[in-house]
Amino acid sequence: MAALEEEFTLSSVVLSAGPEGLLGVEQSDKTDQFLVTDSGRTVILYKVSDQKPLGSWSVKQGQIITCPAVCNFQTREYIVVHDNKVLRIWNNEDVNLDKVFKATLSAEVYRILSVQGTEPLVLFKEGAVRGLEALLADPQQKIETVISDEEVIKWTKFFIVFRHPVLIFITEKHGNYFAYVQMFNSRILTKYTLLLGQDENSVIESFTASVDRKFISLMSLSSDGCIYETLIPIRPTDPEKNQTLVRSLLLKAVVSGNTRNGVALTALDQDHIAVLGSPQAASKECLSVWNIKFQTLQTSKELPQGTSGQLWYYGENLFMLHGKSLTVIPYKCEVSSLAGALGKLKHGQDPGTHVMPRFVNWETPQGCGLGFQNSEQSRRILRRRKIEVSLQPEVPPSKQLLSTIMEDSEKHIEVEVRKFLALKQTPDFHTVIGDTVTGLLERCKAEPSFYPRNCLVQLIQTHVLSYSLCPDLMEIALIKKDVQLLQLCLQQFPDIPESVTCACLKIFLSIGDDSLQETDVSMESVFDYSNSVHDEKMEEQTEILQNGFSPEEDKCSNCDQELNKKPQDETKESTSCPVVPKRAALLNAILHSAYSETFLLPHLKDIPAQHITLFLKYLYFLYLKCSENATMTLPGINPPTLNQIMDWICLLLDANFTVVVMMPEAKRLLINLYKLVKSQISVYSELNKIEVSFRELQKLNQEKNNRGLYSIEVLELF
Question: Which residue among 148, 277, 328, 404 has the highest number of C-beta atoms inside a 10 angstrom radius?
Fold first, then answer.
């Protein structure tokens, strides 16, 4: 279980923090010492255990530090950049920054990045990266432009993976976000487009990331108060291609969406993250620790003086600005377990909490704080474990996935499924996907509370599945009334039985509008009818458009009288969509589905009459929209066609006419449909007359074959 200990102020000196807070807090060459860079002219070296500064350096008046100072762990020197292009290097013995080493660069620097075991890197604002030594050899060297115009770097992180440096930085352009991953062992730079998913209008407030042997787990805190995760492969399948990554929801409503002073998050270890922000709109700012493995809040601490929305974590200390002073909050954590996450872990004598390392880097020889003492017994244990691991055969990812789905939590299964899908496809890919879905569905039946809908959505989107391969999938979705999953199945599966199609139609027509608002369905087939330029004209129209024929020629006097008497509000009702847009999207999926009329009609008779009437009103509305243009088509991406609309009108009337005709509320709809059919008959009748005339013209043309090069003929049609 995680715990936040008593906070303390690092220094009573009020730091020069601007509107955006400090520039940064960075680790020094000693674990207990940190470099703090304010937003003005000063860098201070603090020793946390003594709560006092060890040294302070400032640039001259008129100069300003533009990126946080870092430590070069190889030389134990400090590096800082002021005025965007001027780089300074000094050590503890130096007093005046004006007299230390200086290099003026040819491009503006975004950040200097430094970690143990490698030389520092310099990331320029235009996306280029240079090693410090190569840059100092020629400070005025030309720096290339990597990112596009108006693209701005928002965040960056430096890792060591397989003993090689890996740099990731995030950029933003016009609300779109991109991730760049630089592998320095192969000099490969890969660009990814980050898709925001459901809430495409949200703004990402903060980033953090962790890394394992295959993926970079990029976590982002958005303006909607939710935390999302994006898995970025360390070894891209096609480095030259701009690839797309979709983020998934990790934690919901962690902070309020309208936090006053901004929010921040940072990864503490593989299972825990710290979040800075207000949990509710009117509440004070808090520092909270969440267990992302078990989706639980571990602990929180209120910060009544407010913060700058900045958070740093090193070793076992969290740094933040509380009010105007830099505050340190020690952090302790036990090994992640379900009992600990729920606060029910029993302790014998001493709680025995110990500090978990931020991230374990298995490639470094130091062991990265695994917690073993330097004893002969510990070394023997390590050697024995290493031998045991080396003798174990490597388990294929497909078998790992199949074993995971039988016992792990929904969140962990979702992560493993995303990892598997991100790998290069193997010959048994289709089989593994089918077995995975089958295993998930069997567990759903055995455990009613288990329903990994996000995993099922990901697997359906592989375009590998069909209804015959996993018939239980739609059955469970119907029981759960999961309209998003049903819509996706209707779009992807070509072999859905007519009985299942009708069962989906029942759900789509009966579910309440309030429930639909909370669902995430695909809206690509729905056009925003409220913006139609013909709405005003349609409101004035009291008759059905008859393909160019005047409605005054209609001899159905009774129908004319009925329609001419209808009040103004009913006229508006006939020209507005009778269902909400999300229900329209679901019904469009039904219209696109394949069916056999013989097998479909018996099942349509089981649908309640009021739902049939609603569906007919929607189909009639679509017909009116088709009639607005000469092409008789609907706008938008993949909308229903006129043939689909007319076929379903006929199917519904054939199956339910005797029931619908007895409903008073369906009377006007049936009259409108009658006039629709009558107008079509009138059109076809006139076309038949014209066809006879054209046949006669064709005969005349065949008889007059000895024309000259040019002639004028006058033909009279009676």
Answer: 277
DSSP 170-193: EEEETTEEEEEEEETTTTEEEEEE
Q: pLDDT tens, 233-247?
A: 887 767 777 788 888
| Residue 428 sits in the same domain as residue 418 | yes
122 pairs with which residues across the strands?
112, 130
pTM above 0.85, yes or no: no
DSSP code, position 247: -
Q: Are 214 and 419 in contact (CB under 8 A)?
A: yes
The phi and psi torsions of 688 (rounded to 5 degrees) equal -65, -40
Q: Let me know if residue 70 belongs to a domain.
A: no
Which amino acid, one-letter code, is at 377? Q
What's the pLDDT at 350?
Answer: 39
- Same domain (yes/no): 482, 583: no
Q: Are 618 and 587 in contact (CB under 8 A)?
A: yes
DSSP string, 68-81: EEEEETTTTEEEEE
> Does some domain include residue 547?
no
- Contacts of residue 276, defined as CB under 8 A and 6 or more positions apart, other chains included, come to 263, 264, 265, 285, 286, 287, 307, 309, 310, 311, 320
Q: Is 436 exposed, middle or buried (0-12, 13-18, 19+ CB in 10 A)?
A: buried
Q: Which residue, 390, 236, 334, is CA-closest to 2?
A: 334
- Point out the domain boundary residue: 447, 476, 496: 496
Cα–Cα distance, 248 to 302 (Å, whole number): 29
- CA atoms within a 13 Å half-sphere pointing along the CA-CB vector of 14: 3
Amino acid at residue number 351: P
Residues in the chain: 718
Q: Which residue has the tokens 């430094």?
A: 114
Pairwise CA distance, residues 489 & 494, whole Å: 9
Please check whether residues 592 and 627 belong to one and the same domain. yes
Instruction: Give the C-alpha separation, 285 to 264, whole Å.
Output: 11
**For 700, phi and psi rounded to 5 degrees?**
-60, -40
Report CA Rg, the chain.
Answer: 34
Same domain, 648 and 511: yes
Task: Return the half-sphere exposure (C-beta side, CA atoms, 13 A cut-off) of residue 151.
Answer: 19
Angle at 589 between CA 588 and CA 595, to 5 degrees: 110
Tokens standing for residue 49: 């255990």
Residues 659, 510 share a domain: yes
Tokens of 187: 């000099």
- Residue closest to 458 by CA, chosen among 437, 481, 480: 437
* Extended beta strands in 504-551, E state: none
681 in the same domain as 625:
yes
Range of the domain at 602: 497-526+575-699
If asked whether residues 448 and 522 sit together in one domain, one would say: no
Does any domain span residue 79? no
Mean pLDDT, consecutive 10-residue segments, the chain of 718 residues?
83 56 89 89 90 91 93 94 95 90 94 92 94 93 92 93 87 91 82 76 84 85 88 77 83 74 85 86 81 86 85 90 87 65 46 37 36 42 44 57 79 84 76 88 89 89 88 92 93 91 93 87 77 39 42 45 47 70 92 90 90 90 83 81 90 86 83 84 84 76 63 68
Give the pLDDT confidence score for residue 549 in this predicted structure: 41
Residues pairing with 3 in the sheet: 332
Contact 498, 599 (CB under 8 A): yes
445 and 510, same domain (yes or no): no
Number of independent structural domains in the chain: 2
* Residues pairing with 157 in the sheet: 168
Contact 658, 526 (CB under 8 A): no
Q: In what order do the strands lie in the sheet with 264-267?
A: 264-267, 272-277, 286-291, 296-302
Whole-angstrom distance, CA of residue 596 vs CA of residue 603: 12
